[in-house]
Write a structure and sequence with these properties.
The complex is a heterodimer. Chain A has helices spanning 2-52, 59-64, 72-77, 79-82, 88-97, 107-119, 152-163, 181-185, 198-211, 238-241, 254-257, 262-280, 323-328, 331-335, 357-365, 378-383, 401-415, 434-444, 456-464; strands at residues 99-103, 123-127, 168-172, 190-193, 215-221, 224-230, 289-294, 299-304, 354-355, 370-374, 389-391, 424-428, 451-453. Chain A is of the alpha/beta class. In chain A, helix 6 runs parallel beside helix 7 (152-163) and helix 6 runs parallel beside helix 12. In chain B, 35% of the residues are buried. Chain B has a 4-stranded mixed β-sheet with strand order 2-1-8-6, with no helix packed on it. Chain B has a two-stranded antiparallel sheet with strand order 3-7. A two-stranded antiparallel sheet of chain B has the order 4-5. Classes of the chains: A alpha/beta, B mainly beta.
Chain lengths: 471, 99
Amino acid sequence: MESNGGATDVSSIRSEIETLKAAKSDIEQRISVLEAQLRETTINQQKTDTVSNGTCRSISTVYSDNSHGLSPDMIYRYSRHLLLPSFGVQGQSNLLKSSVLVVGAGGLGSSALLYLAACGVGRLGIVDHDVVELSNMHRQVIHTEAYIGQSKVKSAAAACRSINSSIQIIEHGEALRTSNALEILSQYDIVVDGTDNPPSRYLISDCCVVLGKPLVSGAAVGLEGQLTVYNYNGGPCYRCLFPTPPPTTACQRCADSGVLGVVPGIIGCLQALEAIKIASAVGEPLSGRMLLLDALSARIRIVKIRGRSSQCEACGENSAFTQDQFRNFDYEKFTQSPQFPLPLKLNLLSADSRISSKEYKERVDNGEAHVLVDVRPAHHFKIVSLPNSINIPLANLEARLHEISLAMKEEEKHKGSESSSGASVYAVCRRGNDSQRAVQYLHKMGFTSARDIVGGLESWGRDVDPHFPTY
Amino acid sequence: MQLTLEFGGGLELLCDSVKVHNVHVDLQNGAEKLTMKDLLSWVHTNLIKERPEMFMKGDSVRPGVLVLVNDCDWELSGQLDTTLEEKDVVVFISTLHGG
């Protein structure tokens, strides 16, 4: 009785927490919007007062009536910037008059946005079409748990507003495409690329060339990061450096290769720094040079890269890359890779060589004599695996085939295979692609009964055991 | 000739995940100098352990790979014709896209 009551309590408590959290985030966002509104109204009011009051100015308006136009609040907020001889009032004024667009509120965008909002960029735009997920939290530090499942743009904008309610934050909650990029980018002085795929990178660079905007480009995967400024002051654009897109197999994604959270954080901070330097007209932006970060060995290398190429198809002397051409350019076709990658879904095997995770579960429950080969890399296997599976990574399958034969014999002895066919072989991986490749190879090598588990461990987590971890 | 070769941006995966290689490259018979073209074919033969197509295309590197000779883009020193000297550092780095 009591334990039953306990179970209901837990679920009702959980649902009430969820409801309250949603209400709380709505209220917080409304407050920050109103605060920003209030501040804007007050500033306008002050300006009107200064003009209309002519003869009887209050002392405070006299103080704020200086040539740089910084209000007392601004002077206090940005005082540590103003104290820098090499930055000072001029740098801050320039910054406040500038506008920066950050494309992608992910690992790079998170730290870039936090610093750009804090430092007082006058107008800060955010583009993203995605929602916040639990697997983002370790690196996309701008988002909080309360926003899981909600739009990244909304979450990032709320965080920026809570840091600095005196600047304008603009939400572009849509994917950047050739159809909207010109219109969005043209509203800003500087563009920060924090996207994660080749078509977006070419699209953003070309759009910046067409519109004449400097582009602060960063990237991070694994334990490495790269940073440079394109299309600035006669420097090269992305296409000058990479006229031909890389093969798709060369493009690692964080979702497949992993990334240490702090690495995109560092690159994002450096992107904010470069954007600030350009916006405030202070220092020497990283144009014609590239910064390479190797986090594991604690090495940063800054290399000299080629200048603007006269042959460049986007920015070269004879290039006639126009806004119209940009609008009609197919970036996914050009790079042979999708702008919004969905997990690859191969279909290499006939239906009778495949088995669903549910069906596999039934066979295990029925005590079928079998060997389950998990063909993921060893470090994936360490994260989570199915009981009684043996790990033979696809890359080592050829060399370790005998282990499968051994395991089959062992299983037959153990279960006493009454069906003369012997133990069956199943292959599994993370999503069900490598397992098909493995089964193709196993068939060729005489394991004709081998089958793969459709959809891999992801389908096991979805269809059989909801408590099974996904990654 | 003593050279330091470095691989990054994922290219190290093609050579047993080793990033830095201190190597000795002999001049071809009768040759007076070692060019980047010679070095690429030496790397292809001696260091690349798998998927060579991820490193080279034709007689140059594949698209998306930056080559730096002593921290300078090889476009500025003559690409394949760049002449290498004792103790030069050559970096091969694949461009990253993640974020």
